[in-house]
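Progress note, project year one: complex with fructose -6-phosphate.
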Amino acid sequence: GVTDVGGKLGEKRNNPSVSSPPISKATSSSSAANQPPIKLGIPDSLYANLEQIQILACGTSWHASLVGKYLLEQLAGIPTMVQYASEFRYAPSPLMKNTLTIGVTQSGETADTLAALEMERQRRIDLGAEYEVKLLGITNRAESSLAHLVPHIIETHAGIEIGVAATKTFVTQLVAFYCLALDLAYRRKTLPLSKIAEIITGLRQLPAQIEIVLESQERYIEELAHDFSETQDFIFIGRGINFPIALEGALKLKEISYIHAEGYPAGEMKHGPIALLDAKVPVVAIAMPGMVYEKVLSNAQEAKARDARLIGVTPMNDEEAAHVFDNLLPVPVVDELLSPILTVIPLQLLAYHIAARRGLDVDQPRNLAKSVTVE
Ligand code: F6R
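Model obtained:
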């Protein structure tokens, strides 16, 4: 399921009972002034007086939620916490008023996520109107248990994902978070309309850019995978909005290739994990132009000094990156803010081809189920 990035921006839905993330055509500031540039169909009551957001999720959905946190905080200015649903159930954060709780689950059936949301709903009801319940779901399954539990959902329209490892649903969860963060930014006036329009234009270009990554990288990554059929450990590093992509790259690799892999914020390497590095441990660094580009390159160079083989997810035609990395997985140059949707693709391909090279069943990895309906 790597190639299908799922629902088209602006797609209309058949089921009117749930909301979808269409983006209206407004890209000029004058038309955007009259109507919201994003139409999520979320009622104003859910957004009113919002002081914080908490997101509950597991696994890959938790990683998408970390990107969501970055967007909600940086674009819409709302403090956002991301919790593992399985942890939240037994140690919930202290209740605060004016909180929107978002459950993120592509299947809509993950037991821990559903139970954490139900617990949150119940403890707010118990405390009365002051702690108003505001629940939102992000899911790929409009008819799932999640959709029955929460009054509003954003459906991700990825199409059914058959492979156990979440790939296209991850990408579409990210798109849902861009839509939500932009909708909130519009309503809270935290971004100029021109910036919102610019991000929407960038989002619309991503499907074609993903095609470019697939076309230009697939063969190369398949070849590269030969080098790692005996590798036992991998490190993935990234910073800022691409730190969760490092986590996701590591999760994809461990889950389908059974290679031990860790994702770290690149700046944390020197606080311990750098001790793991030697010539046998490849390091994959996500280095995209923006606030943390030079920082990631310098973190990558620190790894190189420990003889690690360096693989870089980098902007296309970037000479500086070409000097630093042993292998390049280039993606089109986009605003750093949008880059996770592109940077995750070569990492999904890498996991896929290494697993295939090792003769493993990439769709049905051992010990895993598509939906975890038990605690
Ligand atoms: C990893 C993977 C799992 C799921 C997790 C949550 O590739 O698929 O980590 O992301 O089990 O599943 P959902 O999103 O259905 O709640």
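The first helix runs from residue 29 to 34.
The mean pLDDT is 90.
No further modelling is planned for this target in the current period.
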